[in-house]
Amino acid sequence: MAQARIGLIGLGVMGANLSLNIAEKGFPIAVYNRTGSVTDDYVASAGDLAQQLFPAKTLEDLVASLSTPRAIIIMVQAGAAVDSVIDSLTPLLDKGDMIIDAGNANFHDTRRREAELSKLGLNFIGMGVSGGEEGARHGPSIMVGGDKKSFEVIRDILEAISAKHHGTPCADHFGPDGAGHFVKTVHNGIEYADMQMIAEVYGVLRDGAGRSAADIGKLFETWDKGQLQSYLVEISGKVLQTIDEKSGQPIVDIIVDKAGQKGTGRWTAIEALSLGQSPSTIEAAVAARSWSSVKDTRIAGEALFAELEPEKGAAKISDDDLEKALLAAKIIAYDQGLNLLSAASDEYDWNLDLASCAEVWREGCIIRSTMLDEMASAVREGLPQGNLIFSPRFAQRLVEGSSALRRVVASAALQGLPVPAFAAALAYFDTMRQGRGTTDLVQGQRDFFGAHGFVRIDTGETDQHGPWASDIAHS
Ligand code: 6PG
């Protein structure tokens, strides 16, 4: 009986496209979907690629059609559905077989699943896949975590199906257990920040300057040819220039301004906080989506504060400033994302290669951009204090870009236009270039009310206290 090299469970949009990609690259693949008619329809529409497909009507059939050690990709909704598929599959597998979760899993789940399956002698790979439907079909960015030897077994398939950056596959192994899914989570966090910052530019131009959607879209189209070249700027330009067939209006004008979120941006912020990090641009982007969801409240607020006039003295924001501000804020968002990866790597002993993360994101994924190549080079050369914003490649750009960012944030604030991610980026940048901050007072306050102690700047002595303890006692 002919044997398939790999299997895939879950023929939704992502699974169907990923499996066609695998088949197209010459790897026979066994496919299974819980609803059998979905499998039939999928194979019927696969054209010539159907020759590479081994449709299975039961999990038993799927397992039987695979060469050993077996490798089976699960592409179902993240969460309970993944556990349920794993539970059905494990009794059918032999020691040394491998299950690959290619969904957007929470990396804590991936760590748990890896630990549980390794007790059964099975390998579990947590694999982040980015690039949406188109990426899955023609070349996604792939972030793998789990046993390195297992990765080597499927490496040729993953490299063949992935996007390429000048011939280099955008697929890599990042470390054990949840490392790959964590890298994907942070990718999504940066994706949130990038999307939000682009939306803030749109807001400043729409509400501050009264520019049309098409006009703003054309500006993005121009920026996409310069330093800001990126998939997200490109598609933003396209979205803004698209006309809704039904109403004849720009499509953006008929889309309700309530952003959905499946959870990865929120997870990024939650994990960051628990690791003592605060990626303010990502947090701001998550907040902006959450705030967007309370539209009724915002409508009520608009009516309630209608008499509030914009402050006088707001400078006109130039397109050039907006472009530079977006560039600076984007560099800051990546700096924060990379810092988070570094902190998680230390916490979980992943030994993450941050340059490889940036390299894998150069093509195929949603945050792909020309600038990522340079970021990867900056990381490879070594980041001063571990910070991208201090890298010689980017520090100069921030000198110029941060002034533009400051003018944009100041003018937007005076006009009453919310720019939470831009403001968060600026606050972070200003904090990181302030040798003496203001938490000396916070430490004083903590010591005053709780005797928490502080470090003396002059002698370096720790656990010092102010004289206020006796003040309290005598008052
Ligand atoms: C990708 C995307 C993808 C994500 C969607 C929706 O890398 O291809 O990040 O994984 O699921 O973009 O995410 P939200 O619903 O959270 O916006």
UniProtKB/TrEMBL annotation:
Domain of life: Bacteria
Keywords, comma-separated and alphabetical: Gluconate utilization, NADP, Oxidoreductase, Pentose shunt
InterPro entries listed in its UniProt record: 6-PGluconate_DH-like_C_sf, 6PGD_dom2, 6PGDH_C, 6PGDH_Gnd/GntZ, 6PGDH_NADP-bd, 6PGdom_BS, NAD(P)-bd_dom_sf, Pgluconate_DH
SUPFAM superfamilies xrefs: 6-phosphogluconate dehydrogenase C-terminal domain-like, NAD(P)-binding Rossmann-fold domains
Positions annotated to bind substrate: 104, 130-132, 187-188, 192, 262, 289, 446, 452
Entry's EC annotation: 1.1.1.44
Alphabetical GO biological process terms: D-gluconate metabolic process; pentose-phosphate shunt
UniProt pathway: Carbohydrate degradation; pentose phosphate pathway; D-ribulose 5-phosphate from D-glucose 6-phosphate (oxidative stage): step 3/3
Pfam families, per the entry: 6PGD, NAD_binding_2
The protein's name in its UniProt record: 6-phosphogluconate dehydrogenase, decarboxylating
Origin species: Pacificibacter maritimus
